[in-house]
Amino acid sequence: MVRPLPNLLALITLALGALSCGDEKAGIPAPSGLGPRQGGQVVVAIGADLATFNEYQWAPEAAEFEVLDLLFPTLMVEHPDFALRPPSFGERLATSWEFSSDNRHLTFHLRPGARWSDGVPVTAEDVRFTYSVQKDPDLGAIGLEFKDFITAVEVIDPLTVRFTFSHVYPYQLMDANDGHIVPAHVWSAVPRADWRTTDFSKMLVTCGPYRLAAHTRSQTIVLERDPAFWGHPRPYIDRLVFRVIPEVSSQVNQLLAGHVDVVRAVPPRDADRVRARDDLELIEFPSRDWGYLAWNNAVPPFNDRRVRRAMSMAINRKAAVDSVFLGHARLAHGPILSSMWAFNRNLPAMPHDPEAARVALAEVGWRDTDGDGTLERDGKRLEFEILFPAANTFRRDLAQLISADLARVGVRARPVPIEANAFLARQERGEFTAMLAAWTEATRIELSSIWTTRSETLGSYNFISYSNPEVDRLIAAARLDADHSRAQVLLDRIQELIVLDQPVTFLYERNDLVGLSRRIRGADINAAGLFFNVQEWYWEP
Amino acid sequence: MGRWLLRRLAAAALIVWLVATATFFLVALAPGDITQRLADTRVSPQVREQWRRAFGLDRPLVTRYAEWIGGAVRGDLSTSWTTYRPVAAMIGEALPNTVLLTAAGLLLELLGGVAIALRQARRPFGVGDRLLTFATLLAFAMPTFWVALLLADVFAFRLPLFPPSHMHSPAGELAVGWRRLADLAHHSVLPVLAIGITGVGAIARYVRGSLLDERGQGYVLAARARGCSARRTLRVHALPNALLPLITVLGLSLPFLVSGSLVIEVVFSWPGMGQLVYSAALARDLPTLMGGTVVITVAVVLGNLVADVAYAMVDPRVRLGGAA
């Protein structure tokens, strides 16, 4: 059976969507008779320099990844349609692909004529080499686990490569596509044992719409249009200049002054300054970062879900999130982002109800018996610390607001700032009662590492020690179900159970705020990344 | 003096070793390590374990220390855990950037400070002196980051006379020769001013104080009695002696010359030692952090040594080695 992927209907919908958004966003209609024009440079602010040009040496930050994506190809391009369905894919280095009848083999047909920046053709051998790097246990590339179920990658001929999977599961295409293809003919010369001490910028061969023109460490990366680029369409913008500006406020100031054209992450406090300008545009869309108040489910009193639920009801979550993020975040409801296809839209919301919280706490024995305003049980007061990373002002403000809300029902929660690395270390060791933590989600539904009961192989990031056997069972079943409407039923139930248990108090889902010059036309910036359609950007004539 | 110098050099080496050792253990024992940031995206525990092994974090602390110190003694500062480049090469890039900025800033504060002090000492406790005292104290009290942000706001954003950040413009980055130099000079103006303004107050206060001390000395009166003008007496006779205490101040500034100002570097996106060491500390990039610390420690120790030697050279009353 050949899988109908990429889904034609999805592609058409997307294409239409992109077209209409593009026009809307541009604001000013393009002067008739003047199409996109070639030339110019776009200056983009970034917070830190690229640590390395080889993503398999280290774990690139999201912003670094976006730069690497301009230099190295993936087999397919992932469409930003995860709000409607599991992501679909379009052509990139591969022009077509098909599954075998048992769905355990996936064959990619590579684009004839694709070349590296040194003129050498891109072949199936590059794909196989990349896989061997990704899978190398001694390198421990960060996407290693995505290759767990890929047992072999074989070169059929120079333009055909076949992936073999250990079993059939929903994310086979996504796993095969994970990671950029790197040049076998140059990088295979470096012995694997030396990869960790090799400066790959000295042997940089790329294969993207742009290539490296200049790089001054910690200052500027200049990419220029690669005239030999094989993809379509070829970019209009001649140069992309990345300026390292560590301070976000400085980035915004330089955007306002016209020194940079694009700022990736405008802080909520600066959003209005950008929006107030006629020559700048502020694009807002749901990011994949969400935050929560973690309860240690292993220790009293938070090993009792009635207490956790009472906490969630006592906190005015909506007010806290709105005031801290100034309206640029949405209230989080459950373990799946509300921007994902699998989000359960009928999820029962936790109400803000301090009176019900007080009653619930009294039912489990927490009462203010000595009249000092704090609840007690068996002579012990209900007091604890809320830990948060010291440099994070959002979480600092949230901690203050939450502490005040809890005080109103007689719970003493003291906000305690901790240095970021120490914070993560305590989170990992479970050395906390309550802490303000956050995760960044991928575009796949991945629930097992944080919500399944901790064991040798599962729940490795379940720092809160949450355990519900029913949830474990459902997550295991949903992971294997390749039919997403069937999986949806399981995922709906998982979300309900987790919300009932309130192992954490769900707080916020942040928005991404991108500021850019209105004179840049054709940019379709969305959750798929800043440069999703960079080839179509052009300067207003 | 030869033996004295040898003793001081040995002590300096000891201090550098002590600081490096203390830093190594403090950082190694601090909670969290370089693989911590991998947790953010929930990579598998096996991958993190592999990273720990690759960086040798699974081996005993003492072994790692012995390896590092062995390398450092041979001049090998090892490879960065974030950029995979030799730490020495990274310092080699950051250090000149820092020295360029701090040396120019230091020169500005020195010349400015002495000029202000001379003006003040001409008529001590007059209106001009009091106004300048107020101004220098104000400059001394202003936090560096505030001055830096203010300068950027006024001279880069409100009046776009100077670029707000970086060592080069994108065009200057691709330019060569004198164009590149001019571009660099243009970009240095604001950060150098920020260093100069916040440092000038202290120098002015110092020099003014010692000038006033010298004014009462017999040789100054003698000069005046010989008919030397007040101005000339101040500049030619009092000033050289008044500058002696400044040698100590400058010796103590040498570390700053090397370590740079993190605040200035962050505000003006200047890729110097401050940013290098700070980001290494945040990322728990141990080799880079250690390399930076050693270089800065050496600067502190050498700074003190140079100040002592210089003092002995300009002031014949001072004898080194206690042989007087």
| Tally of DSSP β-strands of chain B | 0
Separation, N- and C-terminal Cα atoms of chain A: 49 Å
Helix/strand structural class of chain A = alpha+beta
- Report Rg of chain A: 25 Å
Shape of chain B: globular
Largest interface: A-B, 58 and 52 residues
From N to C, what is the helix and strand string of chain B?
A: HHHHHHHHHHHHHH
**What global shape of chain A is seen?**
globular
Terminal Cα separation of chain B, in Å? 11 Å
Helix content of chain B: over 70%
Seen as an oligomer or otherwise, the chain set is heterodimer
Strand content of chain B: under 5%
Rg of chain B (CA only): 24 Å
| Beta-strand residue fraction of chain A | 15-25%
Main β-sheet of chain B: number of strands, strand sense, barrel status?
none
Low-pLDDT residue spans of chain B: none
Average pLDDT level of chain B? 87
Give the proportion of residues in helices of chain A.
25-40%
Please tally the helical runs of chain B, counting DSSP H or I stretches of 4 or more residues. Answer: 14
Give a short account of the largest sheet of chain A: 11 strands, mixed
Mean pLDDT of chain A: 89
Describe the structure.
With 541 residues, chain A is an alpha+beta fold. Chain A is built from 15 helices and 21 strands. In chain A, strands 1, 8, 9, 10, 11, 12, 13, 16, 17, 18 and 19 form an eleven-stranded mixed sheet that branches. The relative contact order of chain A is 0.15. Chain B is mainly alpha-helical and 324 residues long. Chain B is globular. In chain B, helix 4 (87-122) packs parallel to helix 14 (286-314) and helix 9 packs antiparallel against helix 10 (230-242). The mean pLDDT of chain B is 87. Chains A and B meet through strand 8, strand 10, helix 6 and helix 12 of A and helix 2, helix 4, helix 6, helix 7 and helix 13 of B.
